[in-house]
Design goal:
The complex is a heterodimer.
Chain A: E1 2-5, H1 15-19, E2 38-39, H2 45-54, E3 60-62
Antiparallel strand pairs in A: 1-2, 1-3
Chain B: H1 3-9, H2 15-18, H3 26-35, E1 38-42, E2 45-48, H4 51-58, E3 64-65, H5 88-96, H6 102-106, H7 109-123, E4 128-130, H8 131-136, H9 138-148, H10 155-166, H11 175-202, H12 208-214, E5 216-217, E6 220-221, H13 224-255, H14 257-265, H15 270-281, E7 287-291, E8 295-297, E9 300-302, E10 307-310, H16 312-315, H17 350-360, E11 365-366, E12 374-375, E13 380-381, E14 385-387
Parallel strand pairs in B: 2-10
Antiparallel strand pairs in B: 1-2, 3-7, 4-14, 5-6, 7-10, 8-9, 11-14, 12-13
Helix pairs in contact in B: 7-9, 7-17, 9-13, 10-11, 10-13, 11-13, 13-15, 13-17
Classes of the chains: A alpha+beta, B alpha+beta.
Chain lengths: 64, 388
């Protein structure tokens, strides 16, 4: 599984980082810095899904 | 069922009037959502209540502007960054975001707890307190003293400034007298921070005011006026909103013992509980925008210059987004509430507020027999008394 952030949509709520910091890192301004196509190990996929679904701006997605 | 509910379900009260009364707003939000996610009940005004529609609208600052100058608190210039649209807004957030970023706020948690306990210590042995006056009101101001590198002795000055612009005279003055006090306080605020900034210029520290003075974005420093406009906003946005949130949450827990016991038995639920109570209480129930151009939004014709009410509180109980939206469920997943807004103006202080609220959840009970009185505007309990 790979995840991506749309930096035009991220406004720094940091809910992803709060709920799944192992997957969703943030920069010093508090915005997602995972870029595109970040690998998620199988054991963290469930947390990654929660982080994606929790984004108030729908800025996170799973890559097809 | 309260009389307000009865009136609303009978359709005899206009929900766009009663939504400003804050004692029991969620049934009013429900009624408005059932009428439609976006509505224009009168010329020149629109209400955005649906969660998805609100998110879409807040992502369009070019159409729904924050530069309308709605917030007249005696300030002589627009508040920064609240009343500024992109692209200028981006510059200010570049400076401010790192100062209020989550990791930086995590590092403050010890200081936040110490300042909270400073107030608790003043009444802990008494077995009761006036929570609104003795804790919820001064605590957020004490946090800002720390952020700004100012001594505890300045606390009363901060509280006087805040009250002088937000509720001048405590609601007891005639309108022109109220406005006069507000304008006078506003000028005092500019003078006060101007003096502090002079001091910081001579003797810079690591506080945020010193950082404002030396931070550059694209090679340009903030002007003195810009820094003053940021300080002015902090008094409003950083102080009163946390007071409101604290009183709403403590009142909710005081009237919902099962939720209170859950927190007492399992403090690890506190972060999720804070999010869910922010969703349910929506202490900042609405934020204003102004339509920039004539257009249509979600089937509603909106003329340029229209006042557009972004109903954060209604969006937070939209059943299309939240299953069992009127149940307060600390296990709610996901919880995409918009209590801190959405889009580019997402609350700058949200990460600080979250930490203040998490630190603050303690055990107590409401004083028996107390009838809670909710203030309007921002949702807040004015007379919250607790015992333990």
């Amino acid at each position: 599984m790979k995840v991506s952030v749309d930096n035009d949509l991220c406004t720094g709520h940091a809910r992803c980082w709060s709920l799944a910091p192992e997957v969703f890192t943030i920069d010093d301004d508090g915005y997602s810095n995972i870029g595109t196509g970040k690998d998620v190990p199988p054991e963290l996929e469930e947390k990654a899904h929660l982080g994606i679904r929790s984004c108030p701006e729908r800025a996170l997605s799973i890559d097809d | 069922m309260s009389s307000m509910d009865a009136e609303n379900s009978a359709g005899t009260v206009d929900p766009f009037e009663s939504m400003w009364e804050m004692s029991n707003p969620q049934p009013v939000y429900k009624q408005i959502l059932e009428m439609g996610p976006v509505q224009c009940p009168a010329e020149g005004v629109a209400f955005v209540a649906g969660r998805a529609e609100l998110e879409a609208a807040m992502k369009k600052p070019d159409l729904f502007s924050s530069e309308g100058g709605f917030l007249d608190l005696g300030n002589i210039r627009p508040l920064i960054p609240l009343s500024v649209d992109p692209p200028k807004h981006v510059k200010y957030r570049k400076i401010l975001d790192p100062l209020f970023a989550p990791k930086r706020m995590d590092a403050l948690e010890g200081d936040i707890a110490a300042r909270f306990n400073h107030f608790v210590d003043t009444f802990a042995d008494r077995g009761e307190c006036h929570f609104t006056n003795e804790l919820a009101t001064p605590f957020p101001s004490a946090i800002f003293l720390g952020l700004m590198g100012l001594p505890w002795e300045e606390l009363d000055t901060f509280l006087r400034f805040k009250d002088g612009i937000i509720r001048p005279g405590g609601g007891l003055l005639e309108e022109d007298e109220r406005k006069r006090l507000q304008n006078q306080t506003a000028l005092e605020i500019y003078d006060y921070f101007n003096g502090i900034l002079d001091d910081k210029e001579k003797d810079p520290q690591e506080d945020i005011l010193s950082l404002f003075l030396r931070t550059e974005v694209d090679g340009v420093r903030l002007t003195r006026e810009e820094i003053l406009d940021i300080c002015f906003l902090f008094l409003i946005a950083g102080l009163d909103t946390v007071t409101d949130s604290l009183t709403c949450m403590y009142a909710f827990l005081g009237t919902h013992p099962e939720h209170r016991r859950r927190i007492a038995n399992d403090p690890s639920v506190i972060p999720a509980a804070v999010e869910e109570m922010l969703r349910w209480e929506s202490p900042v129930p609405v934020v204003p925008r102004m339509a920039n151009t004539d257009g249509e939004f979600e089937g509603c014709p909106i003329a340029a210059g229209s006042f557009v009410v972004m109903m954060l509180g209604a969006a937070n109980v939209d059943p299309k987004e939240f299953a069992d939206a009127h149940d307060v469920d600390f296990d709610r997943e996901p919880n995409r509430h918009v209590a801190f807004g959405a889009g580019v103006h997402r609350c700058l202080g949200s990460h600080l507020a979250r930490r203040e609220l998490r630190v603050a959840l303690r055990e107590y009970e409401l004083k028996p027999g107390i009838e809670l009185h909710y203030a309007g505007g921002l949702r807040s309990v004015e007379n919250l008394e607790l015992v333990w």
